[in-house]
Write a structure and sequence with these properties.
With 140 residues, this protein is mainly β. The chain is 5% helix and 39% strand. It has an 8-stranded mixed β-sheet. A hairpin with a 6-residue loop joins strand 1 and strand 2. Bound molecules: zinc ion (ZN) (2 copies).
């Protein structure tokens, strides 16, 4: 299976050859800022499976874990593209909204639910983690 995606203006594009190692919904505070108030929904792919076209803008910060997280977004249209952590350079975490419609992916787990706003509607079918879950398995 392969996936593709692009931002609203088309300056940033990606192609992914392979299945995600995990698909998660994240309610951490930083994701709420990226996503406009709710959670981000993300598919975690092997870095080696990803081909990027265009150079996204980035913002990095040190998370509570001590890891440096880097968010990528299109500087022209603002579409959130992906995130990555220096602790696991073998993975790229793409926003589901960046991927082309019809990808068929949906979150399997909700993470950082302890930081979700009181009005958050979290699907009870999802596996829940109050904070960071164990890192995804997969090809290193
Ligand atoms: Zn764009
Ligand atoms: Zn998050």
């Amino acid at each position: 299976m392969s996936y593709s995606g692009q931002c609203q203006c088309g300056a940033i594009r990606a192609a992914v050859a392979g299945e995600p190692v995990a698909v998660r919904q994240c309610w951490c505070r930083q994701c709420q800022q990226v996503a406009g108030g709710a959670a981000t929904n993300n598919a975690i792919f092997a870095t080696e499976a990803v081909t990027m076209t265009g150079t996204p803008a980035t913002h990095s910060y040190t998370a509570a874990s001590g890891n440096v997280l880097t968010h990528s977004f299109c500087a022209a249209c603002g579409t959130p593209v992906m995130a990555q952590t220096n602790a696991r350079p073998q993975f790229r975490t793409f926003r589901l909204g960046f991927l082309a419609p019809g990808h068929g992916l949906s979150p399997q787990a909700a993470i950082w639910t302890s930081e979700a706003p009181p009005w958050a509607a979290i699907d009870p079918a999802l596996e829940r983690f109050e904070a960071q879950p164990p890192p995804p398995q997969g090809k290193p």
